[in-house]
Design goal:
- The chain is α/β, with parallel strands linked by helices.
- Helix content is about 25%, strand content about 20%.
- Helix 12 links the parallel strand 15 and strand 16.
- Strands 3, 5, 6, 7, 8, 15 and 16 form a 7-stranded mixed sheet that branches. A 6-stranded parallel sheet has the order 11-10-9-12-13-14, with helices on both faces. Strands 2-1-4 form a 3-stranded antiparallel sheet, covered by helices on one side.
Amino acid sequence: MRAVTWQGKRDVRVENVPDPTIQEPTDAIIRITSTGLCGSDLHLYEVLTPFMTPGDILGHEPMGIVEEVGAGVQDLQVGDRVVVPFQIACGNCWMCLTGLPTQCETTQVQGEGMGAALFGYTRLYGSVPGAQAEYLRVPQAQFGPIKVPEGPADDRFVYLSDVLPTAWQAVAYADIPEGGSVAVLGLGPIGDMACRVAQVQGAGSVFGVDLVPARLRRAKARGVETFDLGSFDEEKELVEAIRDRTDGRGPDAVIDTVGTEAHGSAAARMVQNAAALLPRKLGGPIAERFSVDRLAALHTAIELVRRGGTISLSGVYGGMADPIPLLTLFDKQIQMRMGQANVRRWTDEIIPYLTDEDPLGVDDFATHRVPLSEAPHAYEMFQRKQDGAVKILMQP
């Protein structure tokens, strides 16, 4: 089959690789019909290269048709149309039953000290072959895949794999009061969708912050009050502008969807780039013990949120030596919640919104649809924020 493989920093290629096969009774094989390019994939493209191995198959946002099921998979049949969550979880352990499948005790990558295995996401999360491919082996298929009806185009459901539950959890963790205010930092796929989720759940004011004009226009068109970070000389000017819209206090909640590759952190960027250039045997241990993030977005969130407010982190952070302003967090009595989205915890709440009325705008959420063969160009375009790219779907 054809698959998108990682070969080095900013070097992805579409190659022929062996077809996946059933390996365990709880496996299924899915023929991919649509697969997304995620902002998290860009971390592998540039920042998290010390944890990658040439030939790794990328991707974790698939949907498709069941081609084969193992003997232990009772609820799926050949021909079923399914969306596959990005995490691999059993559904039966204590963590899964508590609503935390990202911490699944069956698939935890204990050798790396990490949570549940993920598709296509570094050795830290199990080096499981990913979903930017023609076919996908799905472990723990007795729990993971979400059956969806025939009929509507893939765009209606494919975001159940990651974008929708990640945005949904980001808003849930933000704990926005009814009619309250939230600022969303970063208007890429997750930030854009988080704004939409906050709106349909009753937020009174939704503020969106980004640097990219096309993303700002897209959010503004859906009623978000947008702020162009590039139009402010200093962070404090942005903070004051949003405080002016919230009675001088700041928003009740801030959602940081940017993560480790924030603009405005030159020193941290230099450290990340240096680690990425080292041989993997050296770069991996250094990154695990001494890695730092570009924290500009997080520092903005801490400064911006009102006293007693909540910060929700859905942008991926990977630093182990980050300096955090605990005095400010403590003094402002800020609550923080974070983590990978627990996909199956939220899907039953989300599915009623995937109706013909399409209140979340999923049907036209994708800005680009390309064949899998154009994946290298898609990665470059998305990483450079060219041509208005916010969400890219690939079809094998």
